[in-house]
Each structure stands twice: as structure tokens, then as C-alpha cells.
């Protein structure tokens, strides 16, 4: 998980990432949190949303801290979003295709 990006992850992704890093099953996590395995599965599939207290307990049960902070918006991100909105549909498609090619090259050498 990239530093800073964690706070933009949806809750289901944080739960799944914490559980995978801890090397435990959904059943083991559920036992640690004192809930059911189906509840953990619902969270990881985004079929249910834990409140913040539950999310903290889940992450701590995996051996991690969950840190939430308020921060000013990233000016570069806002500028990038504005530029994307101003592109035509064709320009967006070209940019997306270039990004897909770059990702493919990074993954496959």
C-alpha cells in the first residue's frame, strides 16, 4: 500500500489488505473481532460497510493501526481532475489507452 494512498482506499480494500498481510483467513479474523466469518466476507465484498469503530477493531485484529487524518486537498490532484474533465471523450480514450499500455509494460517488462 503506497503511503498516503491508504486513506483513499475503500473500507473493503483496507480490510482485505490488512487480513492478507496478516496471513489470516476470514474465519480467523472473525474470531479475533468476535463477529462471524460471513460478516467479514460481506465487508470484503462491499455488501456491508463497517462503522469506524468496527473498522478500527478489524484492522487492529490484523496487527495494524488505522490512522485517519484530515488534510487539505492535493492541488496537483485537483488540477489533474480539472484537466481530465476538460478533455473530449476521444482524448480521454487515448489517455486511458496510453495508461493501460504503460501498466502492461510495467507488469510484463
What does this structure look like?
The protein has 109 residues and is mostly helical. It folds into two domains: 5-61, Orthogonal Bundle (434 Repressor (Amino-terminal Domain)), CATH 1.10.260.40; 75-108. Helices cover 64% and strands 0% of the residues. The chain has helices at 11-22, 26-33, 37-44, 52-61, 75-86, 89-108. Helix 2 packs across helix 3 (37-44). The longest helix has 20 residues, at 89-108.
Key words describing this protein structure:
109 residues; mainly alpha; 434 Repressor (Amino-terminal Domain); 64% helix; 0% strand; disordered N terminus
Condensed summary:
By secondary structure, the protein is mainly alpha-helical. It is built from six helices and no strands. It has helices at residues 11-22, 26-33, 37-44, 52-61, 75-86, 89-108.
Amino acid at each position: 500500500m503506497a503511503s498516503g494512498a491508504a486513506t483513499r482506499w475503500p473500507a473493503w480494500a483496507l480490510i482485505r489488505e490488512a487480513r492478507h498481510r496478516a496471513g489470516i483467513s476470514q474465519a480467523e479474523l472473525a474470531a479475533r473481532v468476535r463477529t462471524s466469518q460471513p460478516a467479514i466476507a460481506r465487508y470484503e465484498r462491499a455488501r456491508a460497510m463497517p462503522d469506524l469503530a468496527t473498522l478500527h477493531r478489524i484492522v487492529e485484529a490484523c496487527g495494524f493501526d488505522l490512522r485517519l487524518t484530515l488534510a487539505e486537498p492535493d492541488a496537483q490532484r485537483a488540477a489533474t481532475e480539472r484537466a481530465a474533465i476538460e478533455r473530449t471523450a476521444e482524448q480521454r480514450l487515448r489517455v486511458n489507452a496510453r495508461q493501460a499500455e504503460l501498466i502492461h509494460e510495467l507488469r510484463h517488462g
